[in-house]
Amino acid sequence: MKIFKKMLLVASLGMTLSAFQVHSVDAATDYTVKPGDTMWKISQRYGVPLISLQKINNEWDNNLYIGQRLTIPTITSAERTLLAQLVHAEAAGEPFSGKVAVATVVFNRVDSSLFPNDVKSVIYQIEQGHYAFSPVQDGRIHNTPTSEDYRAIDEAIAFRGQGNGSLYFYNPQKSTSEWIFSRPVTVRIGDHVFAK
Questions:
Q1: What is the model's pTM?
Q2: Start and end of every LysM domain (predicted)?
């Protein structure tokens, strides 16, 4: 009976620890170039924008060689949690597609030369004395995200680089910025307008 209890305890501990790994994502994945590979084919296979793959590997031409090691960009566990917090703060009550679109804006900024190169720096970016995202300023960034917020991030990662190129979003009922109203609209989802 004691052995059974110990086995049950070990199994329970293992299941508990594995539950905490659900949202863990490595900072990057290594890939070994195979015959016929191109940067474009690899970017499509892993669902990352070509420019992101080129940037992280400092590989701007297509002269790959078999056996060459490339880094496939992903996000860290801490970045994933932070992004889920932002999605929750910005898009709670919005449709799932709106949550995906908010996460996509962050990834589009990471992939753009106009913004910082990582999720955390994009989220905490200060422009003209103000945080780019209001939940950072008002503290809502620290609210607990839901499993749906994490699923939205996973979907945004899976389709990274395939959207409308939105770099901004706003609620037209709350926003007062003439500048944001001047941006070309890419899509409207729920209460948010997404723009370039």
A1: 0.67
A2: 29-72
